[in-house]
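Hello K.,

You asked for the raw outputs rather than the summary table, so here they are, unedited. I folded two proteins back to back in the same session to keep the settings identical. This is the first:
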Amino acid sequence: MNKMNKEFAKPWPIGPPGLDLISLGLVDVEKLLKYELTVEDGRRLSKEYSRVLMRKHRQRQAAETTLLRLKKEAIEALPENLKAAALVPDLTPFPVNRRSLDDWKVEVFSWRLQGLLLLLWHYESII
């Protein structure tokens, strides 16, 4: 552990050599906030972040459910000839130049949080 502290004792450049924020003078090392986080703090932060993500997910699901319910109500309010046309499923192929939903990666918060904790730990060690 002491070896790691010595390794990160000096400012750690973020960006290309000579163009990082500390070398350019845009960030003052003495004015950086000092964070002292423990493993328990990290676990608590990750749980809270997970709760936030779940809350957003539930809100998105509720909005989609509402939109589907409104769509069904709108179709039911149409006259019979338009209702029959609206109930025919759209089977046109997906555009080739657009990405489908399964091409996107699932958001994983642990890597983001791990990077944040590493950054905070680094700045704590240089102050």
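The second followed immediately with the same parameters:
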Amino acid sequence: KTSENLNETTQNAKNLSPLEQANAEKLAKLESEKLESEKEFTRLKEQEQARKAALKKKLEHERGNAGNIESQTKIEVGEDIPTQTQAQLPKSRVRLNEREIYDLDYAIVKAKDLKPSFTTGGTQKRTDMNEEQIKSIAENFDPKKIFGSGGFEDLPIILHDGQVIAGNHRIQGMLNFTPKSRFAYERAIKEYYHIDLKPDELLVRKPNKRLNNTEINNLAASSNQGRFNSESDHAIAVLSHYEAKLKELDQKLNADSIYSLKNIVAKNLNFDKATHPNVGDSNLALLMFNMPRTKTQGI
């Protein structure tokens, strides 16, 4: 039957006049081009949808923690890594504000046990990786830029499971040490702290006491204050910094101008009792605090 249909079609084509045959071929070509065009349109549409979905996922990932109250972000803490606490060294200290001050112990750890991260979630609150900073530490280590800096800028701070609270870039740079930088690092550790490190060891700081979820989040976010790679980093950090006071802020504030209102907000959130409250950061924190959020994450 199929053979008969084919013969019939061939016969019909032969029966067409040259003009009719040309028109038929032209029509067939147009139909083919139309089909190809529709296929290409569908392909481009699917490609664009995939691009938008990927972009949306990326933005949700980057801004997810900023869209939630920072201290409520769940931190998954794993098993403790082996550490050698250096009890002979005076404790270090970081201060979030007048109410939150944390003592830190110096500890020797195996470099392989550390877990630096450059995606938001967990203890990482920054959204961008500064490759130049990592390269600079790895290839041209300068101990004066880290040792003795105090606060969050000093030796990296880790959780007991090896996650990095402060100093992801520093840790990654140290993991990538060239022989020259590793030599400079070990010599500086010996000079500053009178400690002889093995080739696979690093000196870090860790909280003297176990921290709860809120404390870990606040420490991680506050460690980035003043040094942001993006606006979302900034927003995440200031939200954490002012969160406690934001919960106490009156629902209604009276002011005769926007300028006055911004200053009232800054004054009310000024738990550090600074002479000149940070108007910009305090109002950004208020904005982030009141942004609509999904049940999971994202602004």
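Residues 85 and 107 are 4 Å apart (CA to CA).

Happy to rerun anything if the numbers look odd on your end.

Regards,
P.
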